[in-house]
Each structure stands twice: as C-alpha cells, then as structure tokens.
Amino acid sequence: MQLSNAQPVFKFELNHKVTPGIVTIAKYDGTHSCLTASAGYDKIIIHHPHGGMISGRAQRSQAHGEVSELNLSQAVIALTAGQIKPECNRDILLIGSPTQILAYDVHDNSDLFFKEAQDGVNVIIVSHFGKYNEMLVIVGGNSSVLALNSKGDEIFWNVVSGKVCAMITFDFDKDGENELLIGCEDSYIRVLKNNQFIMELAETGPVLCLSQISEVRFAYGLANGTIGIYEEGIRLWRVKSKQNAISLQWSGDKLACCWTNGRIDWRDDTGRVLHRVQMRSNGAAMLLADYRLTGIPDLVCISDKGEVLGYPPHQENVSSNTISNKFPSEEDRLAVTELLNKKQALMVELQHYEANAASLNQEPEMSNTAMPTNTRLQVAVAADTEEGCLQLAISTNNETIVRAALVLAEGIFESGETLARHPDQGQLKSILYIPLKPPRDVSVDVHIKTLVGYADSEQFHIFELTKQLPRFAMYVLVESSIIKTNNESYVTFQITERIQRICIWVNQNFLVDDEIELDNDEMRELHISFLCLRDKSRLNLDFGSDGKVKFSTQDIMLAGNLIQSLAIYLNLTDLQRGFRLTAYLSFLSRLNNSEAFPKRQVLNSNQKLVYLAKMVENNEVELSEAEAEQYDRQIRLWGLESQKRLRASKVLIIGLSGLGAEIAKNIILSGVKSVCLLDDEKLKETDLYSQFLAPPDKIGENRAETSLQRARALNPMVDVTAETKAVDNLPDSYFTTFDIVCATGLKQEQLERINNICRDSNRKFLCGDVWGMFGYMFADLIDHEYSEEIVQHKAVKRGPDDTEKNARETVSITVKRRAIYVPLQNALSADWSKPELRSRLRRGDPSYFVMKILLRFRDEYNRNPDPAKRKADTEILLRMRDELVKELSLPVGFISDALLTDVFGIVSGAAAVVGGVIGQEVVKASTARFPAAEEKLRQEMTIVSEIGDTRQRLAVETAEKAQLITALLPAAQDAASFDLKEMLNRYKEVILLNEELLTSCHVRRATQEQAMASLQNLHTILQQAARLRVGKYSKAVVTACRKAVTDNNIEALVKILQVGDT
C-alpha cells in the first residue's frame, strides 16, 4: 500500500541532546508554550520562542539563543508541568529525581514545595482525580502511587505490584469523575478509583505509554513493540512492531505514534497506517501543544539530537511531490488495495483446486486425495500432571492428517506470542499435541491455524479455530481423597449466595472435564480440590452451608485472584470479614495482653464485656459477646486472633480413660470448634476412680457415648460428638479430617500408624498415657514456630553524676523460635549405643525405658497392668525390664524394681497433670504459628528502618566533610604564597576528604538500591493483602498500612494485614 508523507508546519533545532521520555511543554507565564526537556544527567533546557529569556536560576545557553539551561544537583528522572498553584493560571514545573520531587515556579524563580520520595520517581502527571477539587501531582514510583497537593502534602497513597511506567487520568467509567490508569512493568494496566482498584487489564509486556484518545477510549504501548486501543475495558485492535513506542497522541481524527527509531506514523480507527515520516535520529518525545499561538494544538515531535518538528492536527493526503486533483484519494487507494488482496487469495485457492483435479485425472488408480467435504477440525485441552502443562490436542474427524499448526496466544510462549509445529513426514498423524504453560492466571484466547490434508498431498486446506482457556486453567480438579488438605495457609470470608451460582463460577473459571453439578437441589455445601500444574501445590475451595467460604492455598497472589474473580462474578462491592492467610503472610503472632486491652488498666467483668463487644461491632474480631465473656481470660492471655484460630480447630481425642477425660475437659474449655470423643471400650467400675465425665449408672455402656452429656455441658459453644468404632476399623482419611489428634490407651503400632497419617497430611499429633503415678506425653507438631519472651538485664545510671550507684533495668523482648519434631517411631527406636545418647544415662532418669516396658506390656497382653493381678503382672514387668536392659546394654540396676510396682491403675492426680500438659500443647499448636512471610515482612521493615538511619548519618558526615573542604581550599591557596609545605599538607587533606566523599557516595548509592528493593518487596506484600479484600475494605487496609509503615510500627502492620483496618 502506498503511503503519503506528512509535511511539518514548523521545524527548528535545539542544539542540545534530549533524554527520551523526559520532555514536557508548559506555559510558565500562563500564555506562551515553552518546550522543557532533560538534556543530560542533571541539566534541564527550556526553549522559549515567544517569551524571551527565562530569568532566575536558568542561564542562557551558549548553543541556542532561545534556550535557557537549568542545572540541578541530582539526576532528572521525570518532568511534567501543570497549574497546581491555587488561583494561578501559570504552569509549575515538576522535577522528579531518584528520591525527591521538586515543584519549581519558573516565572517567579521559587520553590513551591520539596518532597522526599522513598519509593523513587518514575512518572509524574498533573491532573484532576476523583472527588478532589484541586489539581493533584500524582507520582508513580517503583511499586507505589503517591498524590500530593500544591503544598506537597500527601492526599492519597496506594501500592502496585510492579514499577509504574505510565499514567493518565480520564473518566473511565463515565460517572463524571476521573479515574487513574496505571501502566506497570508487570504487564498490567490498572484502573484506580477512589483509591481502590476497580479493574486490571492483562497485557503481554511492560506498559510504557498511555494516552487518552476520546471519552471512552485510550491507547497503550508495550515494551515488546505492541500498540493498541481499548474502549471501555475491551481491546479494539493492536499491532506489533520491532520498535518500541515512545509516545501516543490523538491528533485530529488519527492516532499518532512516535517510535524509538524516529519514525512517526498516523493510523486510523482500525490501526492501518495512513501517513508516515522519519526523523533524522531516534525519537525522544511527541506532545500536543499550541506552539504557534494559533489556538489549535500541533503535534510537536522531538528527536534525541534536538530536532523539533511540528505537524498540524489534520494531515492532507499529499506525497512529497505536488499531486494534482486527478489522483485518487487515500480512501480510494485503500479500497483498491483491499480488493486486490482478496483477488490474490481467491486466485491461490483456485490454483489449489486445479492442481488437485489434475492429479486425479492423471492417476485415477490412486486413492482420492481431495479433501472430504465433511472434514472438521477438533480442538481439546487436557491437563498433563506429569509434564506440568496443558496439552492442546488438534485433530480431525476422519483419516486426514494435521500437517502443521500455528498457535497464537498472548503471554504463553517464552519466545513470543506464536508457536509453529510441523512434524516430520514419518510422524504425521491425525492428531497433534502442543504443550501450553500459561505463566499467569489470566484468561487467554488461543488462535489456531492448521494445514489439513492427506500425508501425500501437495496442497492443504487451512482451518482456523479459537479456543479460550479459562482464567485458572492451570489447576486440575482432583478427588478429595487423593489430595491431602493443608490449612496452614488460607483465607476465609462470608458471602450469601446459592451454591448453584458457585458451581457456575467454578465451571467458567476452571478447566474441568465434566461440569461440576450438585447431586440434588438440597445440597448446600461444596468442597473441591485442585492441583496446580506449575508447582504441584494444592488449592482447596470450601463453600459452607452457612455462607462461610475458605480458600486454602500457599500462594497469596492466587488467593487474591480467586477473591477478585469471585467478587466480580457475584457483583460483590465490599468484602472483608474474616480474612486470614496464615502460612504465607504469617499474620498469626501471639498477641500479648497489651495488644488485647489498654495498658495498665484494670477492667471489671462488665467493662471487659463492653470493650470486647465494641471490638466485635467494629469488625475487629469474629467472636460473639457470649464468647467474648466466656473466653475473657484466654483472650487477655494470648490475644483475640489466637483465640479465633483456636476456635477454628477440630480435635480428635482417642481413649476416654481418666487421662482422656482430663484432656477433653481442658480442650473443650479452651474453646475449640469441635471435639470428637473416640472409644470402643465399655465403661468399667475401675474407670470411675479417674474418669469424671461418665456417670456411675452407665457401667457397661460405651465410654465415649456415656461421656458425651457431661462433656457438652462443659462448654455449650463447642460441638462435641462421639465415635464408637475401633481405631483399626477406621480408614486413614478419617484422621485427616481433624486438625489435631490426641491418642491415649493405644498400642505402639496403632500410635505409629496414626502419627504417620498425621505427618503426611500436616496434622498435629499428640499422645500420652498414665500408669499409676507414672505418665508420659509425646508431641509431633512437625515444623512448629512459636514466640518466647526473654527477660534481659542491663546496667543503667539512676542520676546524672558518676557517683550515684548503678541500677539494673529489666527489658523484656519477644523472640521467635522454631522447633523441628520427629515422629513417634523415631523417638521409640533411638539407638542408645551412640555416644551422645549414652551420655544421658549418667543422669540416672529411667522414665523413658519404663515407658517402653509398659508399651511392650500393652502390645503383648492388649491391656495395662491390672491391680487385681499385681503379683503376676509385676513378674512380667520385671522380666520385660531384664530383656530391655540386655537388649540396650543398660547398666544393671538402672531401672529399679520399685519403679515397676507403682504403675498399676490410674491415679487421678497424675491424669490431671498429664492431661493439663497435653491440653496446653494443643492450645499452643492451634494458636502459635509464625510462617515465613511474617519473618520476611519484619525483615523488610527492619532493613528499611536501618537504611533510613544510615542515609541520615551519611548525609551528616558528607555535609561536615564538604564544610572542611570549603575551609581547607582557601587556606591552601593562602599558604601557596609563603609556605609551600603547608600548602601541600592542606591539599593532601583535601584529597583525602575527597576520597572519603567518593566512598560515602558509593555507600549511599548501595543503601539506596537496597532500600528500593526492600520497599518494593514490602509494597508487594501490601498490594497482595489488599487484593484479599474488596471495595472499601481494600482501601482501608492500604490506608492503615501506609500509616503503620510511616510510623515504623511493625506489629501494627502485621495485625492490619491480618484482620483489616484496626
């Protein structure tokens, strides 16, 4: 297609190099446009063709009479200008450096404000936003967006997950208020409204430029050379080039694009190029401005060598030569070109048909190679768990083969957006598999073009199909019995919606072979599990009959994507209550009393209830007033959040002997969600000496069922049930339905089996027993993190003088500990011949070996030592003692006879002690969790704080050394006239100070880079936590987190991210 050339209406040279992307045009006097650009590291040039020389800090350039130079002390990263000064029509120049923002009034030569930007500066715009009446300065940093007013005060702040590369404001949703569109390095275009994100548009590369082109349309440019247009969130068209777009502007009725190589083209509504020009060097910027004072904005194009070209908004269809009216118009030329293209395609298709017909006439004995008329192309997508990808299967419905396939998809293939497959001649089949690995959870349209025919054909038919991959296609549905549930990381919330609609949402967003449907209309719950093909991680979706939803996943980003997708589908405007992500964000710190109630304040029972009820009303806890009163002491001890986590725990207690009753009592009173009492034995008279839950008139009945009534009476808020089956008759999956399993009165083989089941499914396991005055407790919490308060003492001065005696001040600090547990099987099979274990025998504690003897007795005789058979059982115990001593080569007399005579029956006091210890461990296992991300959050906050202190210290040292140099230089110059030796000494000192200043500069640069990385990691966590909420709650979390970060309050930040705005 022949293109016409556009002719500039003005052209001039700046005689300065221009930094690409750092250019603006402003009216500093309110009337005349001045081109302002970065001309190097710290230099700004201002071209003023109408207003004479710019006064103040700017100096006339020697290279150009109409250019003034403004030198700064820092690198120039971003430039823009706008009327931010109240009641003033003059533009104020906004200069962004790596860590600062300067608002400079060029006309009055004054600074409007100076603001530190901890997150850096990449983009600055000036515009109206939302309900704010004043013009705002909106700054895009490395991972956040900041808005300032004319005084430099912060108006709002928000976090994004990537570096901000471009920003514009316009009325995106047509409600009369401007929204902020943010183009990020993570390939998303985000729409911010009232400081909360209302839409995310996924693209295939970092978004470099954005531009509004109408009331409902905007253009975008990507780092991979793609440009396109969106209308109301829907992409209209896009094209791709080998160059990157520097700027996009809507000029007249065409989209003008300036590319990095200096090419400028104008496109129509469909993306077709109408005009094209080439500058002499690479492009630097393209802006709209009334540079000729005609009242109509021109398209001002600037190259990196300082060439400036101006084009009118409406281009005439003229070539470089004079064209008479006899020549056809551009529209006619485009129509003719389109008809020629269609003719060429039809001619090629006709030639193919003629070639097939000729082959049939020449070789009639050969099989018919013409394409059957009923040939259809079939496409299916299946999950491949072994390869960790999706298999795109392309096949035909008959004996024809797929000779080649071309697949076009956004952001799936590492090498680009297109993948071609053409098997060798010997591998041709009627089906072709193509692996797909979407790196992100976004919906993708896969466009497929194939060549279909016979293996010996020379001409093939082209078939085209489009297959849409759902957003969560990389998660394959698995049976609940196959995948083991892990509740260490989850998020919960409450909705009111029919399960039928939830099923529709799952079917639309996940790749399922058979659509999920309810077995009957009365079903009110849905529990499904998925396996991630990328990393084999697990995802569980639980929708309860009471409207409570729980997403269990280790990936906080996935949790946020699921919530946002569900909220959009169900049209949820606000969603907050009950969010929790325990393993990834680790917001589960063990809160002390000062976090639950006001410090140094004694509260009576009514005041406590009112205080807790108020917190319930403020959506800070999920406890009713009755629960708040019931668990008052516990909340004061370990905090509200720990009590809520404890209330969500489901506990299984095996064996309702005296010890089992004590454990059940402690756990039920603590306020767990549910307790199941499992026992298949009958109640005996001897049980009544220590088993207080079973009434005396129930002898001969099942111990679990007889204990049910009194157990429920302990705490009506806990769901207590009974199970009468034997442990050996229960499947492994039964034990995985509980969070914690406590076992008593079982054989060693049974204990090891249940322990292994719990470890495989990441469940906590505890066991114990009591024989007479002897008892034991074993806990396997797998990998457990907890906090410990350490008291330290340090010497302090009581008075100002040294004669006063020193005092000791007590300081209490909380440290995190981590314990790695071993299974019971390892603990019972320890090799006591090893020196490190052998040395423990010198301590003279035989308790461990007494436990092994009693477990062997139970394994062999299926009971405990019986007081009615004391003599016979004692002899058995002594025999087993001798066998164990010989087996383990223990010292003779290490286990005395007296120890084995006090292990008959169950002493209620011993059962109470062991039961209390086990109950306490259950509470700890339920409430004290410190996963990895909380540690990461604390580390990043600590690093940021330390870097801030280091930067201040280095700044002070640099200023002191600069003052010394200022003082030494005149002294050295004075000494040159009378004392050369003194002059040399002075200059040596100056050189040393200069070297120290250079070293400090390198250190400051390194600390700044580290600070940027830590802030970006911190902001990523905040942005992901905000995505776990919807609507006003998401906005509240961001605002509260901003204050916590500003105040350097780590504990407040952790709590806010966990429970929301507090």
List keywords for this structure.
Immunoglobulin-like; 1062 residues; alpha+beta; 49 strands; five-stranded antiparallel sheet; 22 helices; single chain; six-stranded mixed sheet
How does this model look, in words?
There is one protein chain. This protein has 1062 residues and is of the alpha+beta class. Among the domains are: 32 residues; 93 residues, Immunoglobulin-like; 96 residues; 51 residues, no CATH class; 241 residues, Rossmann fold (3-Layer(aba) Sandwich), CATH 3.40.50.720; 33 residues, no CATH class; 127 residues, no CATH class. The protein contains 22 helices and 49 strands. Strands 44-43-42-45-46-47 form a six-stranded mixed β-sheet, sandwiched between helices. The chain has a five-stranded antiparallel β-sheet with strand order 2-3-4-6-5, with no helix packed on it. Strands 37-39-40-41-38 form a five-stranded antiparallel β-sheet, with helices on one face. A hairpin with a 4-residue loop joins strand 9 and strand 10. The protein is globular. The relative contact order is 0.06. About 8% of the residues have low confidence.
SSE blueprint:
Elements: E1 10-13, E2 23-26, E3 34-38, E4 43-47, E5 59-60, E6 67-71, E7 78-82, E8 92-96, E9 100-105, E10 110-116, E11 123-127, E12 136-140, E13 144-148, E14 154-159, E15 164-170, E16 179-184, E17 188-193, E18 196-202, E19 207-212, E20 217-222, E21 226-231, E22 234-240, E23 245-251, E24 254-259, E25 263-267, E26 273-278, E27 283-289, E28 298-303, E29 307-311, H1 330-362, E30 377-384, E31 389-396, E32 401-413, E33 416-421, E34 431-436, E35 444-453, E36 461-469, E37 475-478, E38 490-494, H2 499-509, E39 526-532, E40 538-543, E41 548-552, H3 556-570, H4 593-596, H5 605-617, H6 625-630, H7 632-638, H8 640-647, E42 650-654, H9 658-670, E43 674-678, H10 703-706, H11 708-714, E44 719-723, H12 732-735, E45 740-744, H13 748-760, E46 764-771, E47 774-780, E48 783-797, E49 806-820, H14 824-828, H15 835-838, H16 847-861, H17 870-888, H18 908-927, H19 932-975, H20 980-1026, H21 1032-1046, H22 1050-1059
Parallel strand pairs: 42-43, 42-45, 43-44, 45-46
Antiparallel strand pairs: 1-29, 2-3, 3-4, 4-6, 5-6, 7-8, 8-9, 9-10, 11-12, 12-13, 13-14, 15-16, 16-17, 17-18, 19-20, 20-21, 21-22, 23-24, 24-25, 25-26, 27-28, 28-29, 30-31, 31-34, 32-33, 32-35, 35-36, 37-39, 38-41, 39-40, 40-41, 46-47, 48-49
Helix pairs in contact: 7-8, 9-18, 16-17, 19-20, 20-21, 21-22
